[in-house]
Amino acid sequence: MPLKNSKRFKEKIKDAAAETNLARRGVKIASVIAEALRTIDQDPILVGGAAVEFYTEGQYATSDIDMLAPGGPELWETMKELGFERRGKDFINKELELYVEFPGYGLKEEKSDTLNIDGILLQIISREDLIVDRLASYKFWKMALDGLNALLLLEQGEWDPERLQKRARQENVLDALEWIEKIYQEIARKKLDKKEATQRLQEWLRKKHLP
After folding, report:
1. Which one, of 87, 194, 88, lies nearest residue 151 by Cα?
2. Contact 168, 76 (CB under 8 A)
């Protein structure tokens, strides 16, 4: 089914892409895509780097937007009408230099929250689950950057400590969480700057993966 008002949607994406506030740019683009996909009864959830970018108020910057949605031919056609070219799971808008990926269907144990972005509703993965997701990448894929992202998310506050502990335990990253909480406390006591914090993150990975 053709997307109604596709021209209006494309203009809204162009306006969103021109947003200079990094914390808002990704969610504004994602909210327009979500609005368009709801016309085909798909309500995507923002995850990944763009969610980190929003929660950390732009301290982490990314050009990629990851959203969970059922996918399928209707989604592919809708994205095409929004001005995106499909490449596997990725959708690229060359003119605006936008990269959107749909890496999966939806959440399992995770939860989502709802944002109101200029009157458009957008589902986003919860802070706790995003922290745990970054911790898993840090611990199992040895991605120190994602350890730093988890640290940045912790610094923002507004997360439920009990649920964070529970989810970290479920995903076997409680040890990584405890290490990053220790670094966070050292930063708060002004015993570490960000460069030293990054070194501590790498130190834990080296110790964790020693033969």
Report:
1. 194
2. no
Instruction: pLDDT band for 120, please (50, 70, 90 cuts).
Output: very high
Please report where in the chains the tokens 């970054």 appear, as a residue. Answer: 134
How many residues are listed for the chain in this entry?
211
- At 50-69, the pLDDT tens digits run 999 999 999 998 889 999 99
123-135 pLDDT tens trace: 999 999 999 999 9
Residues 103 and 140 sit within 8 Å (Cβ to Cβ): no
Please, what's the b/e burial string for 135-150 (b: 16 or more CB within 10 A of its CB; e: otherwise)? Answer: bbbbbeeebbebbbbb
Q: Which of 37, 28, 31, 29 is nearest to 3 (CA)?
A: 37
Strand, helix or coil for residue 50: helix
User: What are the structural domain ranges in the chain?
Assistant: 6-125, 128-208
And the tokens for 148? 């730093």
CATH architecture of the domain formed by 6-125: 2-Layer Sandwich (3.30)
| E-state strands within 118-186 | 120-125
Q: How many whole angstroms from its chain centre is CA 25?
A: 13
pLDDT, mean of residues 114-142: 97
What average pLDDT is seen over the chain? 93
Q: What share of residues in the chain are helix, strand, coil (percent, to 5)?
A: 55, 15, 30
Could you tell me which residues come within 8 angstroms of residue 157 by beta carbon, excluding any fewer than 6 positions away? none
